[in-house]
Automatic annotation (TrEMBL):
Keywords noted in UniProt: DNA-binding, Transcription, Transcription regulation
PANTHER family in the record: HTH-TYPE TRANSCRIPTIONAL REGULATOR (PTHR30537), HTH-TYPE TRANSCRIPTIONAL REGULATOR TRPI (PTHR30537:SF74)
GO molecular function per UniProt: DNA-binding transcription factor activity; sequence-specific DNA binding
InterPro entries, per database record: LysR-type_TF_proteobact-type (IPR058163), LysR_HTH_N (IPR000847), LysR_subst-bd (IPR005119), WH-like_DNA-bd_sf (IPR036388), WH_DNA-bd_sf (IPR036390)
Transmembrane segments: none
Name of a matching Pfam family: HTH_1
Identification of the protein by name: Transcriptional regulator, LysR family
Organism from which the protein derives: Paracoccus denitrificans (strain Pd 1222)
Family in the record: Belongs to the LysR transcriptional regulatory family.
An example Gene Ontology biological process: DNA-templated transcription
Domain HTH lysR-type: 4-61
Length: 294
């Protein structure tokens, strides 16, 4: 099959990115009827619908979703290739990441990055959801996982490591000679599978005793706050809580630090790999991590 007309692909890319004929028409400087006509031509050529009309908007069909990602990436690369080299002198870098990485590691360093690049506005958003770069106003994302996400450049930043931590006040109330002694304390977010991983590496049969009711919190930051208040033992990343460990407000009773095979990754669409703002941020992150080996 030959490549469809560029006008039809251009209309499809805009509609797929916005999931709106109206917004696509505004962006392209066309009427909504003209955009609909181009989509209809493309659907006739492919002999299949690309969008489903719903009461509250449109969604991609299975075929539409299959074609949307490479089409959006291709136009992103074209926009990057023909961009004014000086256009990045004043722009915005929008970063999306998970709350714990943002609060415990990234946000204290972003001020330094912005001061080094005063013409670059920086916006940080936190979410546990994967970013859809084609539909969200996000430049880069920092994800937690094993990598291998389609359509994006990936840079592994640091492995996810964790170890039990608790307040010195709680530790004084219990004898902690070996890891199995932790089972006598309230474990925060006990259903977290990483507890089983750490306990297994420590040689403890974690499920030997039936689990008790306890606190389940949404992020490591919340768990750390609960641990600081003496409500239980939290499973935390040491490099994220160095200050608390250094000041003694949290203690790490055992030296074992476990990993679950996941890491934090910097990701962004392949078509943006040469964008100056992304190159600057990538270099900054890698430099900061090199200074902070864990």
């Amino acid at each position: 099959m030959s490549i469809p007309p560029l006008a039809a692909l251009r209309a499809f890319e805009a509609v797929a990115r916005h999931l709106s004929f109206t917004r696509a028409a505004e962006e392209l400087g066309m009427t909504q009827a003209a955009v609909s006509y181009q989509i209809r031509l493309l659907e006739e050529r492919l002999a299949t619908p690309l969008f489903l009309r719903k009461p509250r908007g449109i969604v991609l069909t299975e075929t539409g979703a299959l074609f949307a990602r490479p089409t959006i990436d291709a136009f992103d690369m074209l926009r990057e290739a023909y961009a004014d080299p000086s256009a990045d002198s004043v722009s915005t870098l929008s970063i999306s990441t998970v709350p714990t990485f943002a609060g415990a590691w990234l946000s204290p360093r972003l001020g330094k990055f912005q001061m080094n690049h005063p013409n670059l506005a920086v916006r940080l958003e936190t979410s546990d959801n994967l970013v859809d770069f084609g539909r969200e106003d996000i430049t880069v994302a920092i994800r937690a996982g094993e990598g291998g996400w389609p359509g994006v450049e990936e840079h592994c930043l640091m492995p996810i490591e964790y170890t039990p931590m608790l307040s010195p006040e709680l530790a004084k109330k219990h004898e902690l000679r070996e890891p199995a002694d932790l089972l006598n304390l309230p474990l925060l977010d006990r259903v977290d599978p990483n507890w089983a991983v750490w306990m297994r590496e420590a040689g403890v049969d974690f499920w030997e005793s039936p689990p008790r009711p306890g606190l389940t919190l949404s992020t490591d930051l919340h768990e750390a706050r609960a641990a600081l208040e003496g409500y239980g033992v939290a499973l935390l990343t040491p490099r994220f809580f160095r200050f608390e460990l250094a000041t003694g407000s949290l203690i790490q009773p055992f030296p074992l630090v476990a990993q679950n095979g996941r890491s934090f990754w910097l990701v962004y669409p392949k078509g943006r790999r040469n964008r100056p703002a992304i190159r600057k941020f990538r270099a900054f992150l890698l430099d900061e991590i090199a200074r902070d080996p864990g």
